[in-house]
Every structure is written in structure tokens, then in C-alpha cells.
Amino acid sequence: MPGHKQHGPIRVALLGCGTVGTEVVRLLTEQADDLTARVGAPIELAGIAVRKPNKHREVPADLLTTDAEALVASDVDVVIEVIGGIEPTRTLLRKALEGGKSVVTANKALLAEHSAELFEAADASGADLYFEAAVAGAIPLLRPLRESLAGDRITRVMGIVNGTTNFILSGMTSTGSSYAETLEEATRLGYAEADPTADVDGYDAASKAAILASLAFHSRVTASDVHREGIASVSAADIAAAKGLGRVVKLLAICERVEVDGTESIAVRVHPAMIPVAHPLASVNGAFNAVFVEADAAGEMMFYGQGAGGAPTASAVLGDLVAAARNRVGGGHGPRESAYAALPVRPMGQTPTRYHISLDVADRPGVLSQVAAVFAEHDVSIAAVRQEGRVDDAGLVVVTHAATDAALRSTVDKISGLPVVREVVSVMRVEGEET
Amino acid sequence: MPGHKQHGPIRVALLGCGTVGTEVVRLLTEQADDLTARVGAPIELAGIAVRKPNKHREVPADLLTTDAEALVASDVDVVIEVIGGIEPTRTLLRKALEGGKSVVTANKALLAEHSAELFEAADASGADLYFEAAVAGAIPLLRPLRESLAGDRITRVMGIVNGTTNFILSGMTSTGSSYAETLEEATRLGYAEADPTADVDGYDAASKAAILASLAFHSRVTASDVHREGIASVSAADIAAAKGLGRVVKLLAICERVEVDGTESIAVRVHPAMIPVAHPLASVNGAFNAVFVEADAAGEMMFYGQGAGGAPTASAVLGDLVAAARNRVGGGHGPRESAYAALPVRPMGQTPTRYHISLDVADRPGVLSQVAAVFAEHDVSIAAVRQEGRVDDAGLVVVTHAATDAALRSTVDKISGLPVVREVVSVMRVEGEET
């Protein structure tokens, strides 16, 4: 900025130097001049905390330390955290914030559980807490939710926020293979980790859903508030059933306002669901992420890009670093926690949703009326039915209108016990279309 | 924010009260409590400057004034401008900024010509200048470019940023109708204005391209730097030729870095182009906008949503208002102009691009070799050729590799003069695929 006096360097501590950390170091070095011009002061890497310094030959050896605590306590302005996990990260970041150091983190699990305590520490000392990289990698999503849409009323956030599960579901859709086979392939290709639990069981997506819901609805939502179902039970039959209906199966993170009798609450859930092939999220394949946002005034929006990987995540980290550094240089601070609305989280059983149910039934008259009676009994209204006769049995596909998840579950339980029902082939929620 | 002392009201002046202004007033009223909680202070509408107060019965009469200058000079913190046009807006906003009042504007034409002077006034007084609503309506795009991607190196921004032309081109594609017929229909439906010049001749898109290029490449780019072609010359034959090649025609705003012999420059252009049907921008239909961004570390991203309309534009305005108001309450300021890179803008003739050329030629041996010789002569390399024999003439379609626009133009001129060429059916640039 010509005409302004030059500010002293912004000193940065980096905690962790894995895939993302290495890229952060690379970008800080390669783009040093640009970053200086954009911030109004040079960015100086003060130290890199790692467990095993001899394993990091790609970064300057004199910057490496095993003492993360001392690095955080030293004379730095910003702490970048890409270690992951809850402890010791939580303690390190709280100490950094208490000491007035701004924090940039990609740690979704930590934020989904302990963001309130971190925000409080930041607020007390005047430091910033930024975490764009924690959700949907490189895609600018949290800043738009926290800032660009701050004057609007967001009603729904629905997205594909986990690349591993999207890669597996895309694979199952294109090949017709089973979940187990496709997971094996994904592991072999490096798209799934050796222990894929956090991804395939939906923990990673649930943390992200909690963060998204907190920001979208100005309320505290933690991972334990999120209804979570993974993709391990998605069968080739589910995928085929979806295809037959012009739909595809995706693992969705859904955060929405639910108004019942004039009282507002929020529903936050992660589960596989069928969406129409024409829905913008349907064509998001492989390791890409995309998030669909609906707001009262803005209408529908979509954000699309790379949801993981060293360089994309590092891009989001660097964006936050520039923001935190600009605040140091120019005064002021980033957005604080905004949880004033304090909307209650609705239990999944009381959340309205829609089901697709595909059944193998005896091919004789009266079957549909028996099945339909069970829906009626549970106050679940049917949107569409398709019946197909085969040699000695028949296929019956039912798509419901919206009803509470509990009513839908009870309906499925009761139907699966009907003598005319030979097999429940596929049960899956339906999203992305008008109810 | 619990525990913080309540700040006095943030006083806002609204200049203009058309479609967008009316929505701004509605949202300020309906969301007053939420805005207060999000900003940390109440937002108070101090006055609304209009030309004819008796024409605005939907807003509080006591707020209306015809004296915009006095309103701007009064005791307000933020000025929202939704009048449009260059004067008197330019003078009003400069005075507001000089007086330390932050400005939120949706005025793309003004920013594309005079942003430097407005930024200077803002910088001198410490006020903010926000303009998210100026490009792509409700879609959070400028904040992501200015802030989220501030640590990355953006290489390309390519988007559909004008709803009217996209509506017309979508219509021509689905019906096969001519440009004139489709424009008439768009005007009848209210998607095109009575005088559609600013939209169909690409002026609106060129202003937006200038703003996007300035932010993406940290350089001053004005509307006059943008190569501009509208859609009036797009024919039904162009649309049909695109279909035949698995492509669709879109009016694109393209901002890109071009490196030749180690020297960086930027190319900024607005013109119709064919893109593959599988490209994410191809399925953006009707009045929607979408912008594709490529950055070194983040990779490819897309932002999609409503590009115009009262409520969507007001959403973007309110987001900026919250940002400006938060800065008043919490100290600090938004991002300043970042033009340090000062990259030169490349003339269109020297910009690399690709052409699709569809010709009616005499159906006899040797035609292709004559045509191919002209390409070779101009150093333009051919990527694909398709020849179709008909009764007494033949169709010849050529898609080139990248070459300078000047070389491509000369090639087309020379070819159209060849005796074997009966008609140049369609000439159009090709985008969105590897060269």
C-alpha cells in the first residue's frame, strides 16, 4: 500500500508439518513478495512444531522444533494449526488465544466440539479465530456464510463435504460394485485412509455439519447434536433403486431451519440420501465437494471445489492468515462467535424427511392396499408408487411425502413384518426436491 | 455479544429506492433484531434519497428526501448507494468517503471506471468501500476473491455474469429461434429492458469483468481495458454448430493471467464462446449467474446463484452493510484497494484464444488442403477437422489450437475470400477445455 508506513513482520508459528503444513511452508516461501504486498507487512515463519524433526527434510531445519508449547508462547502474532486431533491441540490453541495470538486452524473435530471455549478466549484477548480450511477445503464457504450472508436469513445448507465417501459412492454408481469392493479400490488409490472410520461412518461430515449449522443459524451446535449415519450400509441395491428413479445416492450434510407451530428449531444430520440427477449436487463426483445454500433474500447458491488435499487446504489456511495478518497491521478483528439465536436442535425422530422404500412383495391382489394401510396408520402420506410384476413376486416402490423420521421408521418396521412383504430391498431418504 | 457494552446505533443513508432499495428497506425492518445481534449495535435508517418522494409509498414517508447531498453530509455512518449511473453518484460517494462514511454500493459501471479515486478517498479517511452486489448479485464472489483467496495465486476467472444475455442464449439453444425473436420474447417477459443495449452489447458484463480482474490480479483494470463483444451477432447457425459439436454458446467474462516469455500480463474479455456441454458453466441456464475460478493452490472452484433481482442484490448489500457496521463497532476496516501487481492488460489481438470455424465449401478434392494451407500460413495449428459431403457442396468444421486472436482473425479473413469457400457459416471462440 503506497503511502503507508511499513509495518514490522507478522511472525507465524506453524503447528504440524504433514501434507497441509508442507504446502503452507511452500506457499509462504514462493509467494512471500505477494503476501507482503497484500498484508502490508512481511510474513515471517518463526517456527514449525513437529514430533520428529528428522522426518521433515523439505522445510528449513533451523525452524523445526519439538516444543510446540514453547513455540506458541514465543513472540509470534499468528498460530497456524494443522496437527488435528483434540489434545494437545485444544490446550495449545487456547493458550495461544489467551496470549493474544490469532489462530488459523483446519481442525474440524476440535471446532465441532470446543469452538465456544476457543471463541471465548479469542474474544477476551482480542485475537482472531479463523477456520475456513476446516470445512470443504479450498472452497470459500465459511467466510461467505459468516460475512457475505450476514444480512440474510439462511434457511438451509446442504452439501457433499466428504471426498472419500463421495468417491466411493460415485464409484458404486458408475460400476454397480458393492460398498466393500469400492472401498478397497478407494484405499488402494489413496482416496480412503487405512482406517476409514472417520470418513465412511460420517464422523468427518458430522463435524463439518456442526460447524456449518453454528455459522448459518447463529447457534452453538456440536458434533454430538448431529444425527449421523455413514455409507457402510449403502448397498448395490440402493444404488440401483436410485438409478431406476432418476436419482443418485450421495452422503449429505444437511442443516436446516424447521418451524413447527411458530417455533423455530434446527435439524442437523448426515446420512446417505437419493437426490434427483438434475440437482446441482448430483453431478459432483469423485473427491470434489459442493455445498448448496438457501437464504430468504439471496435464494439458492452453490459453492463447488476441491474439498481436501495439501494445496487446496493450504490455500484456505493462507487466506485466513492474510486476514489475521491484515487485522494486526490495520487494527480491528475478524468476526466473533455469533450464537445469539441459540436455536434448539431438533431430535432426528422429530425431523421432517422423506423416504424411498423399495420392497419385494408377493404378486397378488391386495398387496398395495395392505402396504398403503400401514402408511396411513402412521400418518405418512404417499407421494408416488410404482409396481412391477415379475415371475412369482413383484417390486413395489414407494416414495413418501415429508413426515417425521420416527413415523417413517415405524412405518418401515411394520411393513417389513407384513407377510406379503418378502424383502425390504432398499430404504433411503430422499432430498433435493419439493416435498 | 454478551458481556460487551452496547454500541450506539449505526446510522445509514440509502441513496435510491428502486427494486433493490425497496428490498433493502424491507430487510432492514424485518431483520432488525437479528442485524442488531450480528452487528453489536442497532442499524438505524436515517434517510432515503429519491427523486420523486410521492412515488415511494412502500417506505416510511418521513425518511424520504430529495436532497441526497444533504443526506450524505448528515450524521450517518454508512451510505448505501443503489441509484446507479456515474453522476451525481460518483461525487456523492466521494464526498461520503472523504467525510469518513463507509460506502456500500452495487454500482458496477461506476466501480469499473472510478474505483481508484473512491478507494483513495476511503483510504485517506479510514472509511470502508464494499461492493459485493456489483458483480453476480447475491453470489458471494468478491469477498472470496479479495479475502478467502488472498493467500493464493488466481490464474483465471471465467463466468456468466449477465442474466439477460444468458436467458436469451438459453432460449435460442432450446428453441432454435433467432436472436431477434428471442430478445423480443425476453423483453415481453421482463428479462430484458426496453433498451437492452447495456446487456446485449456486453457493457454490463465488461464492467463486471473489469472489477473481477482488478481483484483477482491485484491490478487496476477499467471497463475500457476490456475487449467487449455482445450477443447480437450470435446466429441460429452458431447455436446449431455448437450443438453439433457437443457445445453450447454462452456470453463469457474471462479474466486470465497470460505469461509470454516470462512476462506476466492479463487478458480481460467479454464475448460469446462455445463451451463443452459437460463444463460446469454449460448447465447454468436462464437468469442464473455462475463464476468459475482457478487458482494455483486451490484448484478449480465454482460459485453459482442468482445474479440479479431486488432481493438477491439486497442480500449482498446487507452483507456488506453488516461488515461495514461491524468495523464501526469493533474497530478496524475492510480490505483496501490492492493494485500493487500493476500487471499490464494485453490487447485482444495478442491474447491467445481458440476458434471454431464452420464453412460451406465446394465438394471437390483439394478443398481441405487449400483451407489448411491458410491456417499453416498464419501459424495457426488445427486441433480437429470435420468434413461432411452434401449434394453439391460440403460442410467443413475446423477447431483450432490456441493462437493469438489477431492470427485467428486474419486466417478467417483470408479463408472467407477463398473461391472454394461458399459461405462462412459460423465463427466462434472456444473456451473451457484444454488447448
From TrEMBL, chains A, B:
Protein name: Homoserine dehydrogenase
Catalysed reactions listed for this entry: L-homoserine + NAD(+) = L-aspartate 4-semialdehyde + NADH + H(+); L-homoserine + NADP(+) = L-aspartate 4-semialdehyde + NADPH + H(+)
A Pfam match: ACT
Binding positions (NADPH): 108
Residues forming the catalytic site: 208 (proton donor)
Cofactor: a metal cation
Organism of origin: Saccharothrix violaceirubra
Entry binding sites for L-homoserine: 193
EC number: 1.1.1.3
